[in-house]
Every structure is written in C-alpha cells, then in structure tokens.
C-alpha cells in the first residue's frame, strides 16, 4: 500500500498542486493534505484516480490484483476439490519432476522426486486398502481410524529415515558416486517430520474425542486435508527449486542439485 509520502512524491513528480488534485478527486484541499500526512488513507477508488491523474501506469498493479484474486479463488476452491483429483495432480507433477531428472541425468532430482512419488502412492493405496478391508469386516469406526492413523505415522517415520539417509542408502544399493547430499535432503526430511507431527496430533485428538466425547477437540481432524495439502505444496516447491538450481548450475558448467 502507498503511504502519504509516496502519494505526495507521485503528485509532485506529475507537477500537480494540492488544489488541482483536490479538484480531480472531487474533494477539498484539506483531504489531500490528510492523505499525504498519513492522517487517513484514500479509498481504493480515490487511490486509482490519484494515480491515474498522475499518469502512473496502472497495468502492473491491475495484473498483480488479478493474480491475487486468482490465488484467492484457488485457495477457496481447494476444499471443494475431490481428494482423488488432488492426489492425481500431486503424483502427476512429481512424476514430471522424475522425468526431468532422468532427462537431465540428475540423480539427486530423480531420486528425491521418485521417493516423494513412491512414498505418497504407497501410503495412499495401502491406507485405502486397510480401510476397505476393515470396513468389510465391520470393524468399529475407532479401529478403522486408528489403523489408518497408525499406518500414516509409520510411513512418515520411515520417510524421515529414508530422506535422512538417502545418500548412504543409495551408495550402498546402487554403488553410485553421482549421489550427493544436498540442502534439499534436509528440507524433504523436515516435510515428513511435519507430516508425522500432524498425524500424531490427529491420532491423539481423535482418541481423546472418541473416548471422552470432547467435541471441541476436532481442529486437526476437520482440517487434516488442508495440512496434508500444505505438505504436498512444500514438496512440489522443493522439487521446482531443485530444478531451478540444477538449470542454473548447468549454465555455469557444474551441477550439485
């Protein structure tokens, strides 16, 4: 947001007096002075008229507002998107990163992207299978939920171990000298530390609610999908950052990503 000094500077650079600006905005000179001294802020419509009068190009600002509105729309739309669509989209993007790593012959990107893809797909399919089997056996809701949560926690802990020891495991299994530890390994580890923490809180909250019927303990349960989506976004951001880093290093004649 522009402050009073910015408004004053823009007006002076345009060669417009306070009196003339007051006429352009259909207000008195005292209002202009208050705007420039920070006593009050102009409404959005007044601000646009101010900038327009000073011949300021509003296209970049309008573009930013459009992107902001689109981002807000996406945020509001996420809760209504089917989990299956979100899962397919996530796996699809990560799979593209795997293909990039193979094409660019980046062992680190290929491995980290493949680990994200395999861990998520494995967890998604097995939890769905466990839930389906327990329901077919008419198991209690508590047993179904806790089995689901326990498997998620175990998978997340294994993922933390896998990312923490990716290099040593790769060297032991593949005997490759191209595998190197990067800054992104630690970030991937912390993503699953976060996921483990949320899953543990979910299990505790659900157990307390189920056993003691404390209904106000449902925050994690009600928003778990959003927390999971946050982890997905972090994973995708990490892979994109690795790709950008790799491209820059290729231009410089080396590659550590």
Automatic annotation (TrEMBL):
Q: What keywords is this UniProt entry annotated with?
A: Membrane, Transmembrane, Transmembrane helix
The residue ranges of the HTH cro/C1-type domain are: 7-61
UniProt-listed Pfam families:
HTH_3
Annotated coiled-coil segments of the chain: none
Question: A Gene Ontology molecular-function term?
Answer: DNA binding
Q: Which residues cross the membrane?
A: 72-103, 109-130, 142-163, 183-206, 227-244
Instruction: Identify the domain of life.
Output: Bacteria
Note the Gene3D superfamilies from the entry: lambda repressor-like DNA-binding domains
The signal sequence is none
Know the name of this protein?
Answer: HTH cro/C1-type domain-containing protein
Q: What is the lineage of its organism?
A: Bacteria, Pseudomonadati, Pseudomonadota, Gammaproteobacteria, Alteromonadales
